[in-house]
Structures are given as structure tokens and as C-alpha cells.
Amino acid sequence: xxxxxxxxxxxxxxxxxxxxxxxxxxxxxxxxxxxxxxxxxxxxxxxxxxxxxxxxxxxxxxxxxxxxxxxxxxxxxxxxxxxxxxxxxxxxxxxxxxxxxxxxxxxxxxxxxxxxxxxxxxxxxxxxxxxxxxxxxxxxxxxxxxxxxxxxxxxxxxxxxxxxxxxxxxxxxxxxxxxxxxxxxxxxxxxxxxxxxxxxxxxxxxxxxxxxxxxxxxxxxxxxxxxxxxxxxxxxxxxxxxxxxxxxxxxxxxxxxxxxxxxxxxxxxxxxxxxxxxxxxxxxxxxxxxxxxxxxxxxxxxxxxxxxxxxxxxxxxxxxxxxxxxxxxxxxxxxxxxxxxxxxxxxxxxxxxxxxxxxxxxxxxxxxxxxxxxxxxxxxxxxxxxxxxxxxxxxxxxxxxxxxxxxxxxxxxxxxxxxxxxxxxxxxxxxxxxxxxxxxxxxxxxxxxxxxxxxxxxxxxxxxxxxxxxxxxxxxxxxxxxxxxxxxxxxxxxxxxxxxxxxxxxxxxxxxxxxxxxxxxxxxxx
Length: 526
What we know:
This protein is α+β, with helices and mostly antiparallel strands. The chain has helices at 48-66, 115-122, 141-151, 153-158, 165-174, 181-187, 200-205, 211-215, 233-239, 253-262, 321-330, 339-356, 395-422, 440-450, 462-474, 481-488, 502-524, and strands spanning 4-10, 14-21, 26-33, 36-39, 43-46, 73-80, 84-88, 106-107, 159-164, 227-230, 246-248, 251-252, 274-279, 283-289, 299-303, 311-317, 365-367, 385-387, 429-433, 454-457, 492-495. A hairpin with a 3-residue loop joins β4 and β5 (43-46). The protein is globular and about 60 Å long.
């Protein structure tokens, strides 16, 4: 009997694969890097064929390390960043920039080339925008598509398929053009609670009257946990699997992480009191509710973007892990931000805190909006601010800035949480997933700054676990995501907030809000 599952997560810099048992135990995991081409701060592109090769490499390696055969694998689940893949009518790559290389056919999620398009469409105040926080981010797909049609008319005219990256992966795996509700509701302004889900007048306002044809977009979507189909022979051969393997509908990576983190409470009456915090290159706070709770700067509410009968709302930061990398890279005592260097900094901070306590880095205050502010300002043009710099270029100086950057990032999380609460959400516990579970500084700060208990899943990779849960449902191993979540959750450790430091962080938060006001004052001076 096929009772094992493969999960694939495609992030910003790598593709990862994990092999799971049906009860959620991770047997093996592998990673393979992917190429990203940058052109300044605004442009970032992937090669989707490079991504597919990385996926195949990671899956083959993980299955080999697990000691399993293709005939052991029941299903494959994909999640990915919300990057945009452009293909021609025959399915071949199309260039997404003036560089003209067709192989770079994917606009990375963090690409901000479409700021003007997002602002222009947001200014229409179209009713569809009520389900995306009242405005559009340049990280969403409709503004990027507007940019492509305007600036690359040749690529646009040749287009036959446009995919969210997770949907590209299921298409590449099965040949099916089916699209996921997770991707289209969250990134394409598809209203899954309405019929039809595509609003022709909204697309017209965007100048994309021909989008449905150019992108080969279907009228309907697949729910998370639905099966897209089985692997086609070429894909099965590349992945080291067989054509009996079922492929689940893809997910946005953060939402797979939310499913993996919230699995134990999925479908529980108190589920709405639990929030998933998925931290990696960026950070996303994901809440689920039975009623729509729209709010300015909060992405959503998206109907059934994750669980049947539930609305999903996301508050998020564009650069978190990426900002820590940036701080390390730009400091005189830093360098290439490898995991080893991050660990050296974290270890040294522990030593410094043992003697300096909360005074460590005192006087350094930071607004972490180095790549805009998704929530609660919905301002992609926002920039970072650092106050309190000296001539200290030592390694300890780097450690002090790193620590205060961690504090600033979590003050931003508190800012988002308070905003979500004003729109009707309320939380008793934060469930953390993603790469940040490896950073003890952030885990500590999540509890102490927000004042909420933090649950760290025992599962070594909640994002992959969420995709494995979806795959388990698609394979028929469980009847629903709630059942899969409960059965596959591996428990977790809860960290309570330290009340003794609350006053110090409350003071930091007041300074954080004051910096927001002062930045606005500076920007207002003409």
C-alpha cells in the first residue's frame, strides 16, 4: 500500500523536498539552490526550468535518503512563493524583462517593478479590492501583469499561459492547467466566494481584458487537498517517482506553513483564536475565520484559500530574514550571511546579554521597512530608518545592531497584531513556522514583545508538513485537511512570555511608533 508522501517547497533561493509518513513523521529532507537574477532593488527573476530541475534533484535525493521506492509514494504536494511564470502557447518560457532572455521567465515575488501599476489600480477603489486589504501590492500578480503588458508587448502577445509558481509546478508535473484556489484568491484577485470569480470590469480597469485568454485561466479552481491528477511519464522520470503518484493542488508557501503549524487545531471550535506566524525571507501572519473580516492593509479576506468554509487574512512584512542578511552583509564586521555567521552572531549576543541585559544596543532604534511596509501601512515605498549609529565597526557592534534589528522586526509584528485586532481578530497563541524557528532570539522576542504564548511545532519543517497534509488528502489517506492536520501534527513546545521584560519592550514600542510619526513628518517636508 502506498502510504508515504513527498512535499516540495520552492522558496526564494532554493527548492526543498521532504518525505513523510502518513502520521506526519519526516523521514528525509533535501535542498537544492535555484538561480535568481537581480537588477537593482526592484527587479528579481527566476528561470522556471532551473526551478524544476532543482525540484527533481531535491525529490530524488530525499527519496533516496529515506530508503523508499517510487511505489511507496502515494502523493506529491507543492507549495511555492507567489512568483509569476510566463509561457508561450506551446508552453515554452518567455522573457519577463528587457534583458530579453526567455529562460528568465519568472518574476520573483519580492520584485517591485510594478509599484506604479499597483498604485494606479488601487486608486480606482474597485469593490474587488475589499478582498485585498483595500489596495494592491506590487508583489501581487495583477500589477505585475499590467507591467508586462505595457512594457513587454511582444511577450504579452506571445503568451499562452501565465502561472502562479505553485500552479506552474503542478502543470509541469501533470500537464493539467487546473489552478489552485490558494493561489488565485490570494494573488490574482479571484473571488472564490462569488460566481463568476473573475470580475470583467476589474480586469478592464487594469487594462487586462484579454488576461483570461493570454494566461489560459480556468473559470473554476481546486481547493487545497484536491487532486490535480497523476504524474505524467516525463515528470515521473525526472522526479524519481511513477505515474501512479497523485499530485495535490498547490499552495502559497506561507499558507502551507500555516496548515503545518495549525494542524492540531484545524477545524477546532477555538481555531480562530490561534494565529500562524511563518517567518523566513519575509514574514506572514495568517488568521482563519468563519466570517469575512476585511481590514486596511491586511491581505484578504480570501475565501477557502486554505480551509473549506473559512476565510483567510494575512498581515505581513516584506523583509525579515532578508533584512537580517542585509544587516550582516553591509556591516564592516559582517560579510556573506551564511548560517554559520548568523550562528556566531547569535552566540555572541547571548554572551553580551548575560552582562548587559536589555541595555544591549540601547539607543539603536530601527524601522525595518527596508523593502516597503506591507502591513499595517500598505506602503511599498516605505524605507528603513536606523537611529543611534556610532563609529563602532567591531563584531560586537554588528551584534548590537543585529539584536536591535530582531527587536524591531518583532515590534513590527506587534504593530500588525494590534491592527488585526482592530478589525475583529483576537488571538490566544502564536504558532511559529518557517526558518525563524531556528533563531532563538526571534522565538524569545515573539513571546516577550507580543505578550502571547508561542508554540513551536515539534515537526522539523512545518511548511513541508503542510504540503504533505494536502497531499495526504489528495491521495485519499484522510477525508479532510482537518483530519490530516490532527493526525499528522507532531506536537510542539510552548514558550510563555516573560512578564519581567514587558515594560522595557513597551518602551521600545512607543519609540517604534514615534519613529513612524517622525518618518512621516520628514516625508511631508517639501
